[in-house]
Write a structure and sequence with these properties.
The complex is a heterotrimer of chains A (691), B (103) and C (171). In chain A, strand 2 and strand 3 form a beta hairpin. With 691 residues, chain A is mostly helical. Chain A contains 28 helices and 3 strands. With 103 residues, chain B is mostly helical. Chain B has one domain: Helix Hairpins (Orthogonal Bundle), CATH 1.10.287. Helix content of chain B is 76%, strand content 0%. Chain B is elongated. With 171 residues, chain C is an all-alpha fold. In chain C, 73% of the residues lie in helices and 0% in strands. The chains are: A mainly alpha (691), B mainly alpha (103), C mainly alpha (171). Chains in contact: A-B, A-C, B-C. At the B-C interface, helix 1, helix 2 and helix 3 of B face helix 1, helix 2, helix 3, helix 4 and helix 5 of C.
């Protein structure tokens, strides 16, 4: 059910001016710069600056969104760009620019809105932290960079903001850097995403060299427009791929790093060492979504040359990677006992869903799940943060329990989020977005296996979320100090997010596919019959069944039992081997440790040896040579030159002494010599005159 | 042998004898005597050349010799005065013993 | 070459040899006087009468007397212990012989260019006087200054020093 129109885009140029779109990204960055100059005690100023700047960004995003929506509702889908040349070297122009189209508009609103809510939440959550000011500086910088990624029309600008996002993620994961685990997690996150970034850079450079432009859309001359894509399709690369396919795969590798697809997923769970608002903002709603957004942005490239009823190599790879990741992460999430870890693996799994949706269903399908996921995952993370805060820092779910009565508001909102994530039918946005993906999987032309993988994933999602809910909120309290509900600054954002987690479903139903139509630039029609389509109803029923099955399994195993932390998990009793494998995250980290890291350790040792022995030896030899030369010079100087000179002077003195003996002091000696000289001279004179 | 040659040879002989005396004798006064002999030999040369040379009417040689005599006399006076003074200091006129200005 | 010349030459040379070779310094001075006299006669033989008489007056009459005075004042009559000739007398002799060799060789080899006998010049004292104050007035004045300086100098040089030296001289 792929929409070929969406690939090339039926957008008319013109439309609302986007000259000042950059302000949306620039204002938070400027605020970050100002906050960086503040000292620690200026907490209120820092928070005000950050929240204020992001509010301005939200305001501007809403204006831009309103402009695009009004244009859409009048039936004119627009994509406005603003491009400029940053600098030139030789004949090459390095261009930057930003684009305002439905995709970027909806993403802007989502990022700034969720971001603002999380900023407000952070003022309460980080109240007792002494590095409050630094936190808001980094958060603001992150918000600016993420918005930059969203508005970028130049792949270079996107890469620059991409890197900035990675940097701020590192800074925020390692915010409590005194904890060795946090520092290590930050390093791991940065390095793993770096691996993906290298591929992204390669793809970017190849794209630039091949198409000659950095811009996506440039009135027909951009790299996502027909001329460039045709050129790329005509160019063959290795292994039967065209240039388009190869570049698409490279860019997907970059996205896979940021979005935690297997095998570059290892950093996401460790990133939970950062504060919970960070986990909510970066590792649930926005940064990890940047990879999905990137694929959506370069979708024309990924889908270039798609035959009717088939798909391209790049999109196939994306689909398989996404589907595999979805199931893989869901399996591991089943056996985790840290509240945030479960949510982290859940994020990885849902990102897999998004990628699979992009691969099989197109931009609208993947992006819809991204938007809905942003809201309910942020909700879940903030709820988890609320739980942790209320339990005085406890994160092990086996040591919680009975919070249903102790923290009712948190429980209510968390339940809404959980149901949205599981895809509980009808009311919750997660249901509609996930079903969109499943629908696309069902009708995928290549294979049906991803569909089955995703369906199993849905079952597992329901299972582990129910397990988590039961452990945390059910039974009775198993921890130390009793838990307490949190102040409204922490709870109010939860309610707002919960509201959206429910209402977003309205814009994504097949009966009224607003979202899809909006992104495709077509008008949306309200059509009940689309809903009644038999295949669709069957699918909805099947997914509902899966969800309910998962919930029932979990309830049966865990129920109201509230086991003590020391008692092995119920699932462990049934399948101990599988349990251990899953709990230890299928040993992916260990595998990396043995192969990649060990290789790098070996390489580092080799480089060290080279440095000390070989280059150091060369340097030492050169230095030794110089020292030798210096010693030789000194020898020459003291012995030969000085010595010679001294000796010469001595000889001179001796000679002088000898000559002085001529001065006998006796007059007759002088007279004799005089007479002799006169005789000699006379002789000479006569002789010369004779001759 | 022309007369001039004879006179010149005599003058040369006198000169050499005077030189030998100045170089060989120990006494300072005898050195001066030798010097006087040398001067006289030169005078003889002058007069000989005046007599047998061109233009004797110009009296060049004669005047030259007269002046030479005058200067020699002055020099002998001063020199002998010096010798006397040295004798007062060193109590001797042996020039071999006057070697304090040596190198 | 006339006999007169040979006799006079022999006289002069003998006097000179004696002046240089004798042991007694006073005898040397007297031999010197003989040499001076021989020279004066040689001058007369060369028709340089004025020079000859000037020689007698100045050299014999002044210089020789001066030498004798000097000898007497420096106790030169006493025979020295180490002998009258220096230890390296042979070197001096050789050098003097060398000089004589050169000079005589020069003279003999230039016989061809030396002029022969010419007419005897008639020199009067008037002529000499005219020449002295005419053509040669500058050398005359200079010699006058020289003589003055020499006289003053000789006096100063040979003058007795102050009181301390007199006492020293008397010890």
């Amino acid at each position: 059910m792929l929409d070929t129109e969406a690939i090339s885009g039926s957008f008319t140029p013109g439309g609302p001016s986007c000259d000042y779109l950059f302000l949306i990204a620039a204002v938070p960055m400027i605020a970050a710069g100002v906050i960086a100059l503040l000292k620690q005690p200026y907490r209120k100023t820092a928070a005000t600056l950050a929240i204020g700047s992001l509010s301005i960004s939200l305001f501007l995003s809403l204006i831009a969104f309103a402009n695009v929506v009004s244009g859409w509702m009048q039936g004119v889908a627009t994509r406005t760009v603003f491009n400029f040349t940053w600098f030139q070297f030789g004949a090459t122009n390095v261009d930057l620019g930003w684009v305002l189209d439905p995709l970027s508009a909806i993403m802007l609103v989502m990022v700034s809105f969720v971001g603002l809510l999380i900023f407000i939440y952070s003022t309460g959550y980080m109240k007792d932290d002494e590095n409050y000011t630094r936190f808001f500086c980094f958060l603001s910088l992150f918000a600016g960079a993420m918005l930059g990624v969203v508005i970028a029309n130049s792949i270079l600008l996107m890469f620059m903001c991409w890197e900035l996002v990675g940097l701020t993620s590192y800074l925020l994961i390692g915010f409590w850097y005194q904890k060795p685990a946090a520092a290590a997690a930050a390093k791991k996150a940065f390095l793993t995403t770096r691996v993906g970034d290298v591929f992204f850079l390669l793809g970017m450079v190849w794209l630039f060299s091949q198409t000659g432009t950095l811009l996506f859309y440039n009135s027909g001359a951009g790299s996502m427009e027909a001329d460039a894509l045709n050129g790329l399709l005509a160019q063959p690369a290795a292994w039967g791929l065209t240039a388009a396919g190869a570049i698409g795969l490279l860019i997907f590798a970059g996205a896979a790093g940021k979005s935690g697809q297997f095998p570059l997923h290892v950093w996401l769970p460790d990133a939970m060492e950062g504060p919970t608002p960070v986990s909510a903002l970066i590792h649930a709603a926005t940064m990890v979504a940047a990879g999905v957004y990137l694929i959506a942005r370069v979708y024309p490239l990924m889908a270039a040359g798609m035959p009717a009823g088939g798909t391209t190599v790049a999109l196939t790879v994306v689909t398989w990677a996404g589907a595999f990741t979805a199931v893989f992460a869901a399996l591991i999430a089943v056996a985790q006992s840290d509240i945030k870890r479960i949510l982290a693996y859940s994020t990885v799994s849902q990102l897999g869903y998004m990628m699979a949706g992009l691969g099989m269903g197109g931009v609208a399908v993947g992006m819809f799940h991204l938007i809905t996921h942003a809201f309910f995952k942020a909700l879940l993370f903030l709820g988890a943060g609320s739980v942790i805060h209320g339990c005085s820092g406890e994160q092990d779910i086996r040591k919680m329990g009975g919070l249903k009565s102790d923290m009712p508001l948190t429980f209510a909102t968390y339940a809404i989020g959980m149901l949205a994530l599981c895809g509980f039918p009808l009311l919750f946005s997660g249901f509609w977005s996930k079903d969109g993906i499943l629908d696309a999987a069902l009708h995928w032309s290549v294979a049906k296996t991803p569909f089955y993988m995703l369906i199993i994933g849905a079952l597992l999602t329901a299972f582990y979320m129910t397990r988590q809910m039961v452990y945390v909120f059910g039974g009775h309290w198993r921890g130390g100090k009793p838990a307490h509900e949190n102040p409204s600054v922490l709870v109010a954002p939860l309610w707002i997010l919960a509201f959206f987690a429910v209402t977003l479903s309205l814009i994504g139903t097949p009966a009224w596919p607003c979202f899809r139509a909006f992104l495709d630039g077509r008008a949306a029609e309200f059509n009940w019959d689309a809903l009644m389509e038999s295949g669709l109803l069957l699918l909805m029923g099947a997914s509902t069944v899966m969800v309910v099955l998962g919930m029932i399994f979990a309830w049966r195993l865990y129920g109201d039992r509230s086991p003590k932390p020391t008692v092995p998990d119920a699932l462990e009793k049934i399948a101990p081997v599988a349990w251990c494998l899953l709990r230890d995250r299928l040993y992916v980290d260990e595998l990396y440790g043995v192969t990649v890291i060990a290789f790098y350790g070996w390489w580092a040792r080799v480089a060290d040896w080279l440095d000390r022995r070989v280059w150091g030896g060369v340097v030492g030899a050169v230095a030794g040579g110089f020292a030798l030369w210096a010693r030789l010079n000194r020898f020459l100087d003291t012995r030969v030159v000085d010595g010679g000179f001294d000796k010469g002077c001595d000889e001179l003195a001796v000679g002088g002494g000898l000559l002085a003996r001529v001065q006998t002091g006796r007059v007759q000696t002088h007279l004799r010599i005089l007479a002799l000289a006169v005789a000699a001279m006379a002789l000479m004179l006569i002789w010369s005159s004779r001759g | 042998m022309t007369p001039l040659t004879g006179y010149l040879l005599v003058a040369a002989l006198l000169f050499s004898i005077g030189l030998a005396g100045a170089l060989v004798r120990r006494n300072a006064i005898l050195v001066l005597i030798g010097i006087e002999l040398m001067l006289n030999a030169a005078n003889l040369n002058l007069i000989a050349f005046w007599r047998y040379g061109p233009h004797p009417e110009l009296l060049t040689g004669m005047i030259f010799a007269i002046f030479s005599i005058a200067v020699a006399a002055a020099e002998a006076a001063v020199g002998l005065g010096l010798v006397i003074q040295i004798h007062r200091h060193a109590k001797t006129t042996d020039i071999d013993q006057m070697n304090r200005m040596k190198g | 070459m006339s006999v007169v010349f040979y006799v006079l030459a022999a006289l002069t040379v003998a006097g000179a040899l004696a002046a240089v070779l004798l042991k007694n310094t006073v005898h040397c001075a007297l031999a010197l006087t003989v040499a001076f006299a021989g020279l004066a006669l040689l001058f007369l033989n060369l028709d340089a009468q004025f020079a000859g008489f000037a020689q007698i007056l100045v050299y014999i009459g002044a210089v020789a007397i001066l030498v004798v005075f000097a000898i007497l004042l420096t106790k030169g009559s006493e025979t020295p212990r180490d002998g009258v000739f220096s230890r390296t007398w042979l070197v001096g002799l050789v050098i003097a012989a060398g000089v004589f060799a050169v000079l005589s060789w020069a003279v003999i080899n230039s016989v061809r260019v030396l002029p022969h006998e010419t007419a005897v010049p008639q020199v009067t004292v008037l002529q000499i006087g005219n020449a002295l104050v005419g053509r040669y007035v500058l050398p005359l004045e200079i010699v006058a200054v020289l003589l003055t300086a020499a006289m003053i100098g000789a006096v100063i040089v040979a003058m007795h020093e102050k009181v301390g030296h007199e006492k020293e001289g008397q010890k």
